[in-house]
């Protein structure tokens, strides 16, 4: 279904005016790795909505989705902000292995 919508020209960056959510954020929130990959490949604006998607995925403990988003260029910086929140969420979600890799330089931009 998603392939058909993308092939038909659906806007992968469309934001639902009622919820303020977009497909990438919803896919990250629910841990749909395949859908996250499809949306990124189809041009989802990781630079604009990646921070929220990262926070949603980390908050729900979706380690592989967090890794996907960071590898795709998700906005993580060393000065705090998103990076600190993602680290904290990973710790609170008991994603110890991911947290260690992220904290010691395994994440993009860290």
Description:
This protein is an all-alpha fold and 110 residues long. The protein contains 7 helices and no strands. The protein starts with a helix and ends with a helix.
Number of helices: 7
- Which structural class should the secondary elements be placed in? mainly alpha
Overall 3D geometry?
globular
Oligomer: single chain
CA gyration radius, whole angstroms: 14 Å
Short description:
The chain is an all-alpha fold. 61% of the residues lie in helices and 0% in strands.
Which short descriptors sum up this protein?
110 residues, mainly alpha, 7 helices, 61% helix
Give the SSE layout.
Elements: H1 2-7, H2 23-29, H3 33-41, H4 46-59, H5 63-71, H6 82-92, H7 96-106
């Amino acid at each position: 279904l998603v392939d058909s919508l993308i092939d038909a020209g659906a806007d992968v960056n469309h934001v639902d005016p009622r919820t303020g959510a977009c497909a990438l954020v919803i896919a990250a929130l629910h841990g749909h790795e395949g859908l996250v990959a499809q949306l990124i490949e189809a041009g989802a604006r990781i630079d604009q909505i990646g921070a929220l998607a990262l926070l949603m995925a980390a908050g729900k403990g979706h380690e592989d989705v967090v890794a996907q988003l960071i590898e795709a260029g998700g906005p993580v910086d060393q000065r705090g902000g998103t990076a600190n929140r993602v680290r904290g969420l990973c710790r609170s979600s008991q994603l110890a292995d991911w947290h260690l890799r992220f904290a010691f330089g395994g994440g993009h931009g860290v």
